Amino acid sequence: MPYETILTSLEENILTITINRPDKLNALNRQVMQDINDVMDEVYSNHEIRSVIITGAGPKSFVAGADISEFVGASVEQGKMMAKKGQDIFFKIENAPKPIVACVNGFALGGGCELAMSCHFRIASDNAKFGQPEVNLGLIPGYGGTQRLTQLIGKGRALELTMSGNMIDAATALQYGLVNHVVPQVELLDKAKSILTIINSKAPYAVGACIIAANAVFDETKNGYATEIDEFGKCFSTEDMKEGTSAFLEKRKPVFKGK
Ligand code: COA
Which of 142, 133, 5 has the alpha carbon at shortest distance from 81? Predict the structure, then answer.
């Protein structure tokens, strides 16, 4: 399905989504947010898609934040609505039943950092820069940044970043645990694809259950250990679990069918 502001390509069951406004450093305007929302519906429903990469067009920026020009003249109520809508779309990414990896190829600022953090993990190119510079605009992060940054790097580091508006480089992001790997920019997508190819070879139900259980840690309406028990149990109803355990005992490679 064609989108106005994002490019998509599906290869070997990995959907690559590229935010495509390089002249505006891929800033998230309303249309980009709508397109991300719509492509996530496709991710949920299309069985050909086993995993997803989100990246930005051009060598300079992943996403340089929400489109600041759309903030001008907004009221308190409109501000709240923007944040709610953004949070809902990023929850859709976070709760997707398939792995979604952010390939951060440059600036990941404001909503860009928040988009990357809503993905299941992040890989950065060595020129990447992360930050929540909203305070420079008299704002705070609104698309989940105050929450996910605190979850990912801890309260002290998160507050230093949100209150100062300072950026950190890829090496610091790696040290903080904000990203899993840092690679040269030319290797960024290949690195993600090599990891996703491994994940795609596993039992899809079990992969999705890893996401559900990990997300339960941060969901106050859920007990994470109870969620784990539930998901562990559900795996026993899948053919893939029977195949995986039988294959191990028969000393052969499992063939998972996603059933
Ligand atoms: N919203 C809207 N437009 C943006 C943008 C954003 N968040 N970030 C960058 N742009 C636009 C610039 O206005 C400029 O457009 P123009 O060429 O029509 O003037 C274009 O992208 C290139 O950006 P520019 O600032 O010229 O690049 P730079 O290399 O000098 O600086 C940044 C790069 C990322 C440091 C700088 O663009 C910046 O600070 N952006 C805003 C980051 C931010 O505050 N994000 C949080 C928003 S809530």
Answer: 142
- Atom number of ligand 1 nearest to Cα 137: 44
Domain around 216: 202-249
Question: pLDDT in tens for each of the 259 residues of the chain?
Answer: 689 999 999 999 999 999 999 999 999 999 999 999 999 999 999 999 999 999 999 999 999 999 999 999 999 999 999 999 999 999 999 999 999 999 999 999 999 999 999 999 999 999 999 999 999 999 999 999 999 999 999 999 999 999 999 999 999 999 999 999 999 999 999 999 999 999 999 999 999 999 999 999 999 999 999 999 999 999 999 999 999 999 999 999 999 999 9
Is 256 contained in some domain?
Answer: no
Q: Which residues pair with 15 in a beta bridge?
A: 10, 52
- Could you tell me if 137 and 214 lie in one domain? no
- Pair 142, 23 in one domain: yes
One domain, residues 134 and 191: yes
Which of 20, 23, 24 is the pocket-test mutation for ligand 1 (most atoms within 8 Å of CB)?
24
Polymer length of the chain: 259
Gyration radius from the chain CA atoms: 19
Instruction: Pick the residue whose CA is nearest to atom 21 on ligand 1.
Output: 24
Query: Number of structural domains, the chain?
Result: 2
